[in-house]
Amino acid sequence: MTQRPTTLGALRASGYRSRSVKEELRENLLAKLRSGGPLFPGIVGYEDTVVPSLANAVLARHNFILLGLRGQAKSRILRQLVELLDPEVPALAGSEVNDDPLAPISRYGRLLVEEHGDDAPVEWVPRDRRYVEKLATPDVTVADLIGDVDPIRAARGGHLLSDELTIHFGLLPRANRGIFALNELPDLSGKVQVGLFNILQEGDIQIKGYPVRLPLDVMLVFSANPEDYTARGKIITPLKDRIGAEVLTHYPRSAEEGMEITRQEAWTRRDGGAVEIPPFIAEVVERIAFLARDDKRIDRRSGVSQRMPISVLETVVSNAERRALTATEPRVVPRVADVYAAVPAITGKMELEYEGELQGSQAIARDLIAAASREVFDRYWDADSLDEVVEYFDHGGVLQISDGASADACWQGLAAVPGLEASLRDAGMLQGDRALDVATAELVLEGLAAHRRISRADTGAYSRARPERPKGKGHGGGGFGGLGSDLFG
């Protein structure tokens, strides 16, 4: 392995060439494009929309902002920009601002080179130390981002307060020769935004009234909610004008894309036993988020994060895992009752409008589960073709399914419903696997309940359909959702 230069003279002798960070990002991106590898591994659904715009911004050496609602992988994308940096770059040892040994910008760096010449010590900074991220909040100050005078440092060194050596640098100068990411940009106060504007435009800063010329070499990247990134006072126009590109992110555009993201991100592998998630259960979980994003009772400006289906699926698996342990079953196989048990994972991810507040988050969550189950049910069955199942309940039949009952106990009750097992067989979904067949049969009952052909109580009991009642403005299924009971009958 080649020995890395540790002094300025050795670095010069090695033929090292300084590059700006934007040129470095551009050249490394071009190399990735030539190799044909993925630019942002693990980012699903953006291949033809967001990624090309991001690539164009980097190739054009622009500072850019990602505009999108919460849970659209904005922070994850910004953090992956680190992979476009060189593995290591040289910097003057001890420099707070990662001074380029060949062109130092700080007074400390210039004095170090003047004093030691070619013997000035050089250290190598890894790429992960060249990425600085900050969440913008209204209480963030200029000192936090840019720096402030340190009286203690001035006293110890015998410096005047106007001397640059007395400055305690903030996050932005410390990101010199790297990437500085600022999340939720509009939440910064106007004063701090002006400070960022000066860096972008002039490369100078003012600390406690003292002008400091500090031509930082930084790639500035931001994120924001589109609702906040407007001219209505939350973002100053001069700063907005200096950001080279606005890249719009979005939620998954199909349930399949969403399921792939959720499967990738959700923690579903458990130590207690094998986990087998029926595909239709994963689809029900994903469609809950899709329906919530279009529901008029839920605030669209806040969005419904992709974290919702991820959290829901993790909770669904956890409830099924708990059942498998108590019922001593060898596998963890989720079913619809487990989705209802995940209502707390849904309610915490929704911001409600006035109408939604009146109905309550739990009622809306159950409505969404019922509507999602109906959509998945409709892909396999026609509710009008299951008259034999419906007649059983119309004639007084009642079936109660608990989210804690074993697959064998559930199947005894399900198999007693005329036509139910045949409906699974006709759809090609009878597996001969007790746990999977219970999950499928429960989906049939849930679909019929969502179509109002039978009724589902909050206790998990299925019975004859209730009289029709007016629907709200949200999705259908009103009142059919509920948490499973602790009994099976």
Rg over C-alpha atoms, rounded to the nearest angstrom: 30 Å
Number of domains: 2
CATH domain topology of the largest domain: Rossmann fold
Number of strands: 16
CATH architectural type of the largest domain? 3-Layer(aba) Sandwich
Average pLDDT reading: 87
Distance between the first and last residues' Cα? 71 Å
Shape summary: elongated
Detail the poorly predicted runs. Answer: 471-489
Question: What fraction strand?
Answer: 5-15%
CATH C-level of the largest domain: Alpha Beta
Strand order of the largest sheet: 4-7-10-1-11
Care to describe what's here?
With 489 residues, the chain is α/β, with parallel strands linked by helices. The chain has two domains: 8-248, P-loop containing nucleotide triphosphate hydrolases (Rossmann fold, 3-Layer(aba) Sandwich); 255-464. The chain contains 21 helices and 16 strands. The strands form six sheets. Strands 4-7-10-1-11 form a five-stranded parallel sheet. A three-stranded antiparallel sheet has the order 14-16-15. Strand 8 (204-207) and strand 9 form a beta hairpin. The termini are far apart.
